[in-house]
Design a protein that fits this description.
Layout (H helix, E strand, L loop, with lengths): L3 H7 L14 H10 L35 E2 L14 E2 L11 E2 L25 E8 L3 E2 L3 E4 L10 H5 L2 E3 L2 E5 L5 E4 L1 H14 L7 H14 L11 E10 L11 E11 L10 E6 L23 H8 L5 E6 L8 E2 L6 E7 L7 E5 L10 H13 L3 E4 L4 H9 L3 E8 L3 E9 L4 E3 L4 H8 L19 H13 L8 E4 L2
Helix pairs in contact: 1-2, 4-5, 9-10
The chain binds 2-OXO-4-methylpentanoic acid.
Length: 484
């Protein structure tokens, strides 16, 4: 097995994958000299210079290594002796250290069918993983066949929910290119969530490069139909076996991939939301603005209650003592948007979403929708507190025009009903108008002030503009192409 940096530094074509031809001992000793981090090499250690024991060397440990060393002196190509003085230095995630072991048993790819390709039910053949220990830093990242991970029963994640995650997607365009969408936002948010839980820092650029490599390994899994993609789930967990509640000393970061169709089985069809006023998702000073598993588990029971009333998700509305209806928050795993026509003569359109005040997840799609809608130039776009009373009043006077949720998983999800225990607000949704916008030529949906003579469907217009970027119909600084 060779690390990518060793291959590069040796300057010759060497086997890329673990499963291919093994290294000769002569290569191995050169490579050990070139190790710049605590990257352990598995396998044959027969090329080690005298005086370096197997335990001190980089051999034999990959995950959970206790031997984290950097070579103390700068290394040069062609050195013939191992630098004897090894000092421990915490190391970061490095793409160059990535080791790939491919699976010998590849699954058949699923059919592109929204009913069979349920969100998050199918996984690709490989995963990316990398471990961290306090004082030693990160081990070499590796791509391995997807499989169970081994955890001590006292691992912090299992007791105190020391876990954060991300949701990203890779899309295949008609040109066959694979594209990520604003992935640096996911890396930034993962770093913020991790810091909140005392999980370790990591090099965001290097992690993203490793994720791209995982996508390259799994490129045949990426569906080439609009609306389908591969969902990317980076996850970081506290693995330290310690029942005391304290800072993380050991962690693991892994990334799995899942080919997906629409998040809600109803697909592009609108859904209803259950207005949840008893349970809260987030509170002032809490962690609602971080993407951590602990924010999601408590939403499942309210969601189940809502499902008995025909709702696919809940809308959290929190009593704040300032209004009868309470403050609109998030909708389950989505940010929420309301298109309201303002009272008075101007009748101005206003797109409203709750502000990032610590209670709301800073969604990548949320931010994109705000930027797109501001670019449309024909409506006011507000991030402001919204009380449910205002939604009710707008509905009563026919001024509530659209409601939709946003998220990486669901993209843009139209809502047709806000269901309470004993009443329901019906929200308009014009399916034909949405189809009109979805059929627009690439790039035209995002043009400023283009909606004056066209049927109103902000959901449709935003979806088209977003799909145009994600599937590469238009060039955009938000698209990150994964080079083959
Ligand atoms: C996403 O939209 O990426 C999410 O994280 C939603 C997920 C909890 C299903």
């Amino acid at each position: 097995m060779l690390t990518r940096s060793a291959k590069r530094l040796l300057g010759r074509t060497l086997p890329r994958y673990h499963n291919e031809a093994p290294l000769k001992p002569a290569h191995l000793s050169s490579i050990l000299y070139l190790q710049r981090s605590n990257t352990p090499l598995n396998g044959d250690c027969s090329g080690l210079p005298k005086g370096i024991s197997k335990k001190e060397s980089f051999c034999g440990h990959r995950m959970h290594s206790t031997t984290g060393f950097r070579v103390a002196e700068p290394l040069q190509l062609g050195m013939t002796e191992m630098v004897p003085d090894l000092v421990p230095l915490p190391s970061d995630i490095r793409y160059d250290d990535l080791v790939i072991t491919t699976s010998k048993r590849l699954q058949a790819k699923p059919r592109l069918d929204a009913t069979t390709l349920k969100f998050g039910a199918v996984y690709t053949d490989h995963m990316l993983q990398v471990s961290w220990k306090d004082g030693l830093g990160w081990t070499a990242p590796s791509i391995d066949p997807l499989g169970p991970i081994s955890l001590h029963p006292c691992a912090q994640v299992l007791h105190y929910a020391v876990e954060c995650f991300e949701g990203m997607k890779v899309y295949k365009g008609k040109d066959g290119q694979l594209r990520l969408f604003r992935p640096e936002m996911n890396m930034d948010r993962l770093a913020r969530s991790a810091a909140r839980l005392t999980l370790p820092k990591f090099d965001k650029v290097e992690l993203l490069e490793c994720i791209k490599e995982l996508v390259r390994v799994e490129r045949d899994w990426v569906p080439d139909a609009e609306g389908f993609s591969v969902y990317i789930r980076p996850t970081m967990i506290g693995t330290h076996p310690f029942l005391g509640v304290g800072p993380t000393r050991e962690a693991m970061l892994y990334v799995i991939l899942s080919p997906v169709g629409p998040y809600f089985p109803s697909g592009l069809k609108p859904i209803k939301l259950y207005v949840e006023t008893e349970n809260v998702r987030a509170f002032s000073g809490g962690v609602g603005n971080y993407k951590i598993g602990g924010n999601y588990a408590p939403t499942i029971l309210p969601q189940l209650r809502g499902s008995h009333l025909g709702c696919s998700q809940v809308l959290f509305v929190m009593q704040d003592g300032k209004s009868k209806g309470g403050l609109v928050g998030e909708s389950g795993s989505m940010n929420i948007f309301f298109l309201i026509r303002q009272e008075g003569e101007s009748g101005e359109l206003e797109l409203v979403t709750p502000p990032l005040d610590g209670l709301i997840l800073p969604g990548v799609t949320r931010d994109t929708v705000l930027k797109l809608a501001r670019g449309f130039g024909d409506m006011k776009v507000s991030e402001r507190p919204l009380h449910f009373d205002e939604v009710e009043r707008a509905s009563e006077s026919g001024r509530l025009l659209e409601v939709f949720g946003t998220g990486t998983a669901c993209m843009i999800q139209p809502v047709v009903g806000l269901v309470m225990k004993d009443s329901e607000i019906t929200v308009p949704f014009d399916g034909d108008a949405a189809k009109h916008w979805l059929a627009k030529a690439p790039g035209t949906a995002a043009l400023p002030n283009s909606s004056s003579d066209e049927p109103l469907s902000l959901c449709g217009r935003l979806s088209r503009a977003l799909l145009d970027v994600q599937y590469g119909h238009v060039d955009s600084e938000w698209s990150v192409v994964i080079e083959p």
